Amino acid sequence: MPMDIRLKTAREICARLERRGFRALLAGGCVRDLILDVEPKDYDIATNATPEQVAELFDKTVPVGAAFGVQIVVLPEGHFEVTTFRKDGPYLDGRHPSSIQYTGEEEDARRRDFTINAMFFDPKTESIVDYVGGRADLTAQVIRTVGNPRERFAEDHLRLMRAIRFAARLGYAIEPETFAAVREMAPLITTTSGERIRDEIVRMLTEGGARRGFELMDDTGLLGHVLPELLPMKGCEQPPEFHPEGDVWTHTLMALDLLDKPTLPLALGVLLHDVGKPVTQTFEDRIRFSNHDKIGAAMADDICRRLHLSNQDRERVVWLVDQHMRLATAPEMRQSKLKRFVREEGFPELLALGRIDCMSSHGDLETNEWIAGYLRNLKPEEIKPEPLVRGRDLIEMGYKPGPVFSQILQQVEDAQLEGEIASAEEARDFVRRNWDVESLNGEF
What is the DSSP letter of 126? Predict the structure, then answer.
């Protein structure tokens, strides 16, 4: 098992609880990951100590889920969730139990979602504690609910998507009865908040196995309830000279398969870059998708708002979808336009999207490599040089402040980016030649 400072600290938390006479075990996903020799993102602890007893043992705790027996122990090494062994009462809202009851560890294991997430690790004996067959399912590479799948999914509807995500990320099969329950209960996912659905989609796109995740979402019917805009991609024919791989859905799946630890905006940009194609498809001299980038950007904006993305992430995703076709015209752009383009904050993600787009279609990377070479040969000061004149300089030259200042300064920068001027003196001469101070001041 991998050992890091957080694992050492989690063991120490268990040891402190044990010294006070309590039972304390590592629990859930961290145990699964430790068995798989993967470094866990978090370490959770389950104990028979009550939340109040946990709080007495540590200097700083936060009762984030006191009603459910959860305390966060805050230490320099991180935050550690410590939960009292419990069993849950009926779930009435598809997310929360109506009540809980403190209980033993076996009953606690049996309330959890999937067998591979319901094991414990006892640091005292260095042994796996498995009441639900999770170790066997890890060996068999199977995602299976703990107990009756329909009961588990009825308790928390988000588990429908979690089954898909774990299967995709780990490359596991979904046990047949569990799979059948996901298909049967897929419509219930619409009762889950956009934020929770967003978090699962983000993990599915960024943790690995994105293609398989979306194939399983489609196979189970979840896709039509979560992202119905993607369904028209299936069977949406593309011109074979540019897309020998097939329809838009096939292209998108192939693109998802090329994601490698992407940023969130890049991952969603890849997923949605052709979302506008089905609604813009025409059959003229050949199949065309005029303005699919602009239409797709508007659709992406609606999707991102529905998923409650942050404004920053939403704007970046929309920009990526809107701009992805411009990359093909980069070699023909004027220097000023090209330099402004490549200095956009999201351009590295856009270039990555362009590469993925090409590799999942015609495979021609010539333009992408031309842009990459262009960037390698550009110095930072050539992309965004210090201005040769500013607004105060125009005032000193006798121009009255007004809306035209932004136009003047942009055209001066254009000339600078084109290499037509290189000094403040040349910039001033450029302004005087193109804007007569007396006639211009008369316009204000």
Answer: T
